[in-house]
Sequence to fold (553 residues):
Amino acid sequence: MTTADGGPTVGPGPADLAFGAFSSHPPWVLDLDHLSWNTGIDELRARTRAEAPRLTRRRRVPPGSRVVRVAAFLGTALGAWYVGDRRRGVHESRAGLSRRLRRAFEHLGPTYIKLGQILSSGEGLFPEELVAEFRLCRDQVPAEPFAMVRRIVEADLGLPLEQQFSEFAQTPVAAASVAQVHAARLRSGEAVVVKVQRPDVARLVRRDLAAMSWLAPLLVGRIPVAALANPPALVELFAETIVEELDFRLEAQNMMDVARVLADTGQRAIVVPRPHPSLVTRRVLVMERLEGFAWGDAEAMRASGIDTEAVLHAALIAFLEGALLYGVFHGDLHGGNLLVQFDGRVALLDFGITGRFDEPRRLAFLRLVMAASANDIPGQIAAMRDLGALPRDVDIDAVIKDLGLDRPPIDPTTLTAEELTAEIRNLTKGLLGYGARMPKELMLYVKDMLFLDGALAVMAPNVDVIGEIVKVVMYFHERHGDRIAREMGVEPGTIPAVDVAGIRASLGVTEAVDAMTYRELQERRELIRRRLEQHQRGHGSRRVRGWRRRRVR
Fold:
């Protein structure tokens, strides 16, 4: 049996499958009335969210000696770049700056390593040199000593380790900046993983956010990486993201909420590990252990008979349904947070970062996506305004005119490097001039979509991208059309149809092709990337030659 999107279904099984997309063979069955850790969870989430603006409010007086240490490391990194890498061409300059920033972040500890990890998963949002360099932060976080892990687990669960677990691996299976994860087995026999927060990390994060928010305005215009042109906004986004990761009760509820969305939409091709009904605290999270193929190990999956295109399609559908229809989605999709089980279902892991649109912004986001599928430019700009990405009083017609959105689409592969650079520069300048910003949920959504786009290269390189987009849009029309029409305030059956020409234009394709594989799309992108890189190198070398001539004089 399969679901409507082609994924596997589950037959009669554990009672909790009625309200959550969990595994078919559970270590325990969840009862919503008997979860000891979720009392007052909504109030806890509201208090946590309110904390981020307070932490990032700039103080008149520097918040302690931490500012001095941070300023010293960042100042040294920028100074060394200024005298060493700045004049070596655009690519070399950005690579050198990224390397020096990464080293400074590692010296500054868990909060900055976490920021680096978020930057590393922002391929397409941040410059490739920055993303590549900060990927090193993912694997260079030393684990806490096991004695410390034992102390935290015993303090939070209230019993000696041996009375809760028959097995507890001393070496973690993963160690990140905020927490580390250990394989274990309960005394009752269930295989679990235990997520343990690093000692004192909550206090360190709050201290570091205060320091970051004080220093960020001083860095405006001093970090020549386009994506970091607005350090205060980046700090605000980071604060909103990380404060919720400091309480594992919120993460357990995130797991339950995403599982509920998947069950409500009938998406049984995706599963969520069950949090333990009682062994969850602020610093310890015990959950079901799930196993499978590493995400991206497409060769092994295909050898086992798994259709990797179907796997990716199911993940995309589930992600979009959560965001569009419920306003809840996993906010940190990357290869380490996904497994493909041996039956072809995708296991979602690590729910510390979750996107949550409130209802007005969810409706705005729904309008944005539907307007994009219909190539409705004014509708997209209005939706961006309602999402908070543009000021409330923005003139929609002026934005369209000033950004050139009313012009016929241009194939970027037909432009020279100078023309490409000018287009990007003018668009960026125009957006900033209108006060554009990236709300947290929108940033998480874009980051996840860029990850899924990149996953096509391994999981479905021969898929027809244009056909896949049309297929996804038609799925929403057919499966959820009445609901979407009601929420958009239009009559059922009158939702604007998908505009294939608009889809082609969004991919930078102006010719009337009916299909384009992901390989072909990547070839076009690679051509554009090389052209821009050559232009940047040439521009950098001309600038260096000019500087040398001035020095000679």
